[in-house]
């Protein structure tokens, strides 16, 4: 790209603040909640987005919708918007998701979570950061080319996905199973995680293991523990034992923070309704984030071994399910997507980026499992899922500038 075109693109992004706020405002007003979160999916929000894109010149759209009879439209939308490049030897993908999480306790918000509030250069509202910031940045990076009649060096693909917040069954998992959208040489960036300076590129995720553990004993009166088998006591002992598996899976990896595997007891179900009843059943959950040097098979083998020990000691029966079990390889630090993204960050902002790993999880893991190198990156304050979620308008612009450079790398 020549210097004149570079200046045009930069000026377009710098002058697009009101348009960015407008798009964020429109999207936030659409409560794109999954059925699991009491919503009707992303169709309404997707329609608003596509109309806005068409009105502004981005009209090359293709739907890859996933059937879902639980929502009124019958589908969960996945849409690709294409900006043709001078070369199609590889495409530059920017992947964002349309769904958001519920607002949670609205008393903790200082503004209406479904109406964007602008204050001191920040936009407040549910979804403004997760993942609308990345979405809006990608859109305006693409528009910078389209509005100025500049053709990017490589074809640009903007993918807007469904269902990321509750497992991606109707999003990236559906696309990877039913479509052949990606090529191994493509550059795939996911602006859905990062830091306040945009200087970290996530290339690896810890393996995720969620456990739901059910302990069956024998209920009895609180004064006669000798006549029963206390499921609560056995569950407590097992939770502590599983937490202590860090003594077995004890390696450290400085790519991650924390740099070790974590195995944490979390949610617990109600068991009995009175203090003087020793419970015959108890259910608890574990959230385990395991360094990729260990396999989930190894971890589950140790879980079973320790469960067997507790069964024998307390006279109970233990079984468990795995609501989530994901493991993925890392993207090499010298993969083209990492090298090109780091070069774009350097060129756009003078920042030397570093590679990191995270506790998980993003859709990047699904892609890496299928052999597609991906990078997760953005400039954000990590307000996802929190009350008073916000994004900085300056961060939307900064990331749009980086992506605009990447489109011409």
Shape: elongated
The description of the largest β-sheet is: 6 strands, mixed
Helix content range: 25-40%
How many H/I helices? Answer: 10
SSE order in H/E notation?
A: HHHEEEEEEEHEHEEEEHEEEHEHEHEEH
Structural class: alpha+beta
Strand percent estimate: 15-25%
What's the mean pLDDT score?
A: 97
- Spatial order of the strands forming the largest sheet: 1-4-8-5-9-18
Instruction: Please count the beta strands (DSSP E, at least 2 residues each).
Output: 19
Radius of gyration: 24 Å
The low-pLDDT segments are none
The N- and C-terminal alpha carbons lie at a distance of 9 Å
Brief write-up:
This protein has 409 residues and is an alpha+beta fold.
3D architecture notes:
This protein is an alpha+beta fold. The longest helix has 19 residues, at 296-314. It is built from ten helices and 19 strands. The protein is elongated and about 85 Å long.
Secondary structure elements and their pairing?
Blueprint lengths: L2 H12 L2 H12 L14 H13 L5 E3 L2 E2 L7 E2 L2 E5 L3 E11 L19 E3 L2 E3 L7 H16 L6 E8 L10 H7 L8 E4 L9 E6 L1 E10 L3 E2 L9 H13 L18 E7 L8 E2 L2 E10 L5 H19 L2 E10 L9 H14 L4 E5 L5 H6 L4 E3 L13 E3 H14 L3
Parallel strand pairs: 5-8, 5-9, 9-18, 10-17
Antiparallel strand pairs: 1-4, 2-3, 4-8, 6-7, 7-19, 11-15, 11-16, 12-14, 13-15
What key phrases describe this protein's structure?
alpha+beta, 409 residues
